[in-house]
Design goal:
CATH architecture: Roll
Number of strands: 7
CATH class: Alpha Beta
Radius of gyration: 12 Å
Number of domains: 1
CATH superfamily: Beta-grasp domain
Shape: globular
CATH topology: Ubiquitin-like (UB roll)
């Protein structure tokens, strides 16, 4: 499956579709504060396990940082 991940083409072998949670695990995104957008729609963290990413989707994973 090929997707656009953070504005870069990415090929994910062995999947025709996968959940947001599976993608985050595969790509080792472990930050506590993430924003995930699939095709310009924000996905709530409660929906990571039931939101699917398909061939050609545009996915953005944004790590939020805080500080002072």
């Amino acid at each position: 499956m090929e997707i656009l991940l953070n504005n870069k083409p990415d090929k994910i072998e062995g999947f025709k579709k996968l959940t947001v949670k599976e993608l985050l695990n595969l790509k080792k995104y472990t930050y506590k504060m993430l924003i995930v957008r699939v095709n310009d729609k924000t996905v709530k963290s409660d929906d990571y396990e039931k939101t699917y990413i398909k061939e050609g989707d545009n996915v953005a994973v944004i790590h939020l940082m805080t500080g002072g």
